[in-house]
Amino acid sequence: KLKATIKKLANTDMTILIQGESGTGKELAASAIHKESNRAHSPFLAVNFSALPDDLIESELFGYVEGAFTGAKKGGKVGLFEEANGGTIFLDEIGDVSLKVQSRLLRVLEEKEIMPIGSGEIKPIDVRIIAATNKDLMQMVAEKKFREDLYYRLKMGYIQIKPLRNRKEDIPALFDHMIGLMASSEIVYDRELLEMLVRYEWKGNIRSEEHTSELQSRITI
Asked: What is the spatial distance between Cα 84 and Cα 45, in angstroms, rounded to a whole number?
């Protein structure tokens, strides 16, 4: 069902919001949308907002001109929106950005243009935006921590990725795939291990399954 939704949304050019817990594969879904779209041969750039201060976020996204601020590079810097022109930009952990940055993102969505920091020049852009979060943005809207207008502009297309514990029927296939990546030889593992994996809650989702030491200690090549 998720793959079908990705293909359907890829055939549009609408902005998309992906929600899901950490480790569920939100960036993978965003990349798949890009690869299935008519922008596939143009750039796909990603930025994670979770650990970036406002000033750095703005300079990364919008770029800046020479002398825009102390420490600015000579010649300025092209922002990610401009670098991704014609393609797709993935805004990960969108729930972590400040209201100030939210306002600037809303302008990009509404006007399809950017203004580098320190510049008076407005530049038109053609970029598809896919945003992702592990937070409840609707609750954040109610708490005035996230702009309601931005929320609905981002959610023109929507994907909810279930946590692994709610789709345990996928675990055997995922496990086989991950084990296959570890070695080219035939892999043998016992039934008890598979049953243990299905019983586990996987709070870190697929990412935690990738790094489970038990995968290596209970298999035979």
From this structure: 6
